[in-house]
Amino acid sequence: MSSVVVVTVDGPSGVGKGTLCARLAEHYGYHFLDSGALYRVLGLAARQRGILDNPVALTDLARHLPVRFVEGKILLETQDVSDTIRTETVAALASQVAVIETVRAALLAFQQDFAQAPGLVADGRDMGTVVFPQATAKLFLDASAEVRADRRVKQLKNQGLDANIDQITKEIRERDERDRNRVVAPLKAADDALVIDTSDLSPEQVFNQAVAWIDRQQVSREFAV
Ligand code: C5P
Asked: Atom 19 in ligand 1: which residue has the minimum CA distance?
């Protein structure tokens, strides 16, 4: 049994995965993998290079993606793209490149290498199903599209950005549709994941449920074998 603990948190956009993962990583003192950021950086880099419609070039770029996570910043080569990748436009590019099987395969080992002692919290769409199928504890967060759009609008307004609720709801639905219905690594809960509907829960309540589940999984592993 590996001594590195891996906690996976999957789910669609706007369910509060980012908030939960940051708190879990801090609580347990684990590393954090924001796998969505990798797909976002790839989408952005592909657009800059004009290769969005070229799966071979995209796969090659994914294999050698010049991305670095440095002191809370995300760098594409030397460019700080931490804010740029958070736009809905880049999110759409990410979900577009994420449907390509060879691109996902190219990013697999890179993501798995984040599993370093003492542990990892991995945030994404296929963390529990594909990237870390042997994870210690798996969570899947969900919420209605309306609640998720509402949260996204509040987030954008807090950042001083304009946000149209109808437009955001439409974009969220389209992206989820693509993520859930793609052939490779579609967005779905692993069979052994705890599913939490966060629609009517506070971040605190979600965190408490998650910690209770993770602690229980760790204990049952220690007593297994
Ligand atoms: O989580 P985030 O919103 O940053 O993800 C952006 C997009 O990247 C998702 O809509 C999805 O298409 C893709 N993605 C993925 N697999 C992951 C993480 C993200 O396909 N593990």
From this structure: 36
